[in-house]
Amino acid sequence: VQLQASGGGLVQAGGSLRLSCTASGIAFSGSPVAWYRRAPGKQRELVASITSGGSAYVVDSVKGRVAISRDNAKRTAYLQINPLNPEDTAVYYCNVPTAMVNYWGRGTQVTVLQ
């Protein structure tokens, strides 16, 4: 099983990024997907999640700037952040919870400059 997160980078405040999480080795289309982030010196926090049917949830603190989506044919989930602000600087992780195992990707770094 592998969750490959990508799309992070160094971005100016006000810019945008789309993160991708591509899964292999699991029944992706039937699984929910979540994005978490861990900012420097802080605990990991949920950013957004999406059910297998496509129902999305975004936490209040980023609502209006963040969108989560999925493409089951590509076995990929996305997290769009626009506009970015410095408080979005963090390592972003994708997560696929299953009945037996909670799978995590390695994370992708997002750094937002003032």
Overview of this protein structure:
This protein is mainly β and 114 residues long. The protein has no helices and 11 strands. The strands form 2 sheets. Strands 2, 4, 5, 6, 9, 10 and 11 form a 7-stranded mixed sheet that branches. The protein has a 4-stranded antiparallel sheet with strand order 1-3-8-7, with no helix packed on it. A hairpin with a 6-residue loop joins strand 4 and strand 5. It starts with a strand and ends with a strand. The mean pLDDT is 96.
Keywords:
114 residues, mainly beta, 7-stranded mixed sheet, 4-stranded antiparallel sheet, globular
Topology:
Layout lengths: L1 E5 L2 E4 L4 E8 L8 E6 L6 E6 L5 E3 L7 E6 L4 E6 L8 E8 L4 E3 L3 E6 L1
TL;DR of this structure?
The protein is mostly beta strands. The chain has no helices and eleven strands. It is 0% helix and 54% strand.
End-to-end distance, in Å? 37 Å
Helix-strand pattern, N to C? EEEEEEEEEEE
Helix content: under 10%
Number of helices: 0
Poorly predicted spans? none
Structural class: mainly beta
Largest sheet report: 7 strands, mixed
Determine the strand fraction and express it as a percent band: over 45%
Task: Give the overall shape, derived from the CA principal axes.
Answer: globular
Mean pLDDT: 96
Number of strand elements: 11
Radius of gyration: 13 Å
